[in-house]
Amino acid sequence: MTTKIALITGANKGIGFETARQLGAQGVIVLAGARDEERGRAAERALRDGGADAHFVQLDVTDDKSVQRAAEWIEAEYGRLDILVNNAGTASVARRGAAPSQTPLDDMRAVYEVNVFGVVAVTNAMLPLLRRAAAARIVNVSSEAGSISSQSDPASPLRQMMPASAQYPSSKAALNMLTAMYAKELQDTPIKVNAANPGYTATDFNGHRGFRSGRRPARWRGRRWARPLPRRNGTRGGR
Ligand code: NAP
Predict the structure, then answer these.
(1) pLDDT digits over 203-212, tens only?
(2) Which has the least CB within 10 A, 4, 18, 96, 143?
(3) Which overall architecture, per CATH, does domain 5-93+115-144+180-226 show?
(4) How far is CA 94 from CA 106, 111, 141, 206, in A?
């Protein structure tokens, strides 16, 4: 079987790093995207120390030149891409979790730049490479926070737990719809497009307050979506 090649954005820590580690453990060549060279090289070393065939790729999803350079490098080195995990995400703005009525537009833009526009930029840049793979996979790392059903159901624990805020939940709802639209566009190709919810996971993202450990969600999901799948027609989008 041909060795698969996976690009994970935001792979220098948290869920992205763990996804890279587990894909590497399955023999997949791991391209660890990170916007900061020092953090990216440190992740590359840690992944290699764990036995993965890992390579740091400088990739700031909000920087068109960085995205383009990454696509050109992957094309020159490998000529194709089998798996793209759009994992990089943020909620880090000055007024994180502010009520919608108190949310500055600059904060909205900052979160959307990474969680929404960054996904479109990276996906579009990588699509020509994904089309060259036998059966490529795109996984968008979403969140239940982006579920309109959960956020509007008074009985939902998520609604009870999360205060009303505009930036992050709406960015993930937009990501869910983007997933469905890419899946629709690519439905007659061997490329499958999915979104995955890792669950509330202890990472820097939430000051390590999540219920799940850094390893559990990626391992659980790894069985379902990070594993290289056999060639099959059809695509799927969803939350
Ligand atoms: P994390 O530990 O804060 O990691 C976020 C990653 O995204 C870091 O590598 C960060 O890089 C990177 N990133 C941020 N902005 C970027 C940019 N402009 N370009 C490239 N990379 C960028 O968070 P996490 O918990 O692992 O989150 C990963 C994904 O899971 C996110 O999409 C998040 O929304 C989603 N998620 C998390 C949870 C949870 O409970 N943790 C729940 C549901 C969904 P730097 O180190 O350079 O900042």
Answers:
(1) 999 888 887 7
(2) 96
(3) 3-Layer(aba) Sandwich (3.40)
(4) 10, 11, 23, 15
Amino acid identity at 46:
A
Q: Is 89 in the pocket of ligand 1 (CB under 6 A)?
A: yes
- DSSP H/E element including 83: strand 83-86
CA distance 45 to 60: 20
Main-chain dihedrals φ then ψ at residue 141, nearest 5 degrees: -85, 105
CB 123 within 8 A of CB 138: yes
Q: What is the pTM of this model?
A: 0.92
Catalytic site residue 172?
yes
Where in the chain are the domains?
5-93+115-144+180-226
> Which residue among 172, 182, 192, 200 is the active-site one?
172
18 lines ligand 1 (CB under 6 A): no
Sole residue written with tokens 């979790």: 97
Say whether 184 is catalytic.
Answer: no
